[in-house]
Amino acid sequence: MMSFENNMKLGQELYELNSVTMKKLMELDADSFTKLMEMNKSFGEGIPEMKGLVAFMDMQREYGKALWDDSQEAMKTKSEIIRDAFEQAGEIMVEASSTTPPKKETAKKAA
User: Fold this and answer.
1) Which of 39, 28, 34, 26 shows the shortest CA–CA distance to 77?
2) C-alpha torsion 56→59→60→63, nearest 10
3) Could you tell me the pTM of the whole model?
4) Per-residue pLDDT tens for 22-77?
5) C-alpha dihedral over 66, 68, 73, 74, to 10 degrees?
6) Is 92 exposed, middle or buried (0-12, 13-18, 19+ CB in 10 A)?
7) Torsion (CA) 74, 75, 80, 82 in degrees, nearest 10
């Protein structure tokens, strides 16, 4: 059985890990959103310069590929962040469960 102090330490370590992980995920999402907006602006500015349907279709294809590539990269990075967090949480749990509380000294009864 884990002591109160060990439970508190475990809770604190898991909270800190979750906080760091969520911060990384939010930063990644913010970066992805910024990239998306820049890409939309860039492709949107090119629409008035289109000289025909073929050029428009080519731009659509390029836009779709860029969008797909960026989203795949973001998902791969998110997966790595989450996998790392799970591994760290597992290590924290193993460490917490292997920690044995100090033994209490018992008073010897006089016979």
Assistant:
1) 28
2) -160
3) 0.74
4) 999 999 999 999 999 999 999 888 888 888 999 999 999 999 999 999 999 999 99
5) 110
6) middle
7) 110
